[in-house]
Amino acid sequence: MPHQMLQLKDQEITMLRDEMEILMSERQMLLRIVGSAATLIAELDEKTLPPATYEAAEYLGEYLNELPEESMSDALEAVHAHVISDSAAS
């Protein structure tokens, strides 16, 4: 009986490790998506966008602004983006 319990624990640990690897891989993918979206939004010229596109970009920008600063930083780093703050651009 104890051997079976140890074997079950080992299986649970292996399953948790596999799940963690999947989650970390998905996180990296999501960081690249968010970083790419943030870079795209930063480069858009609102004066040249069609109204529907501007509205979609505005929604995306709002969602991106809701992310914690550390997550956004990780996302931008994942795509090697460099963001110039408003104060530096002035």
What fraction, in percent, of the residue positions are helical? over 70%
Number of helices: 4
Question: What is the molecular shape?
Answer: rod-shaped
The poorly predicted ranges are 85-90
Strand-residue fraction?
A: under 5%
Integer-rounded radius of gyration: 21 Å
In whole angstroms, the N-to-C terminal distance is 71 Å
**Number of E strands:** 0
Q: How many strands, which pairing sense, and closed or not: the largest β-sheet?
A: none
- What is the domain total for the residues? 1
Structural class by sheet pairing and helices? mainly alpha
Q: What sequence of helices (H) and strands (E) makes up the elements?
A: HHHH
The whole-number mean of residue pLDDT values reads: 88
Q: Would you give an account of this structure?
A:
79% of the residues lie in helices and 0% in strands. By secondary structure, the chain is mainly α. The chain has one domain (2-89). The chain is rod-shaped and about 70 Å long. Mean pLDDT is 88; it is low at 85-90.
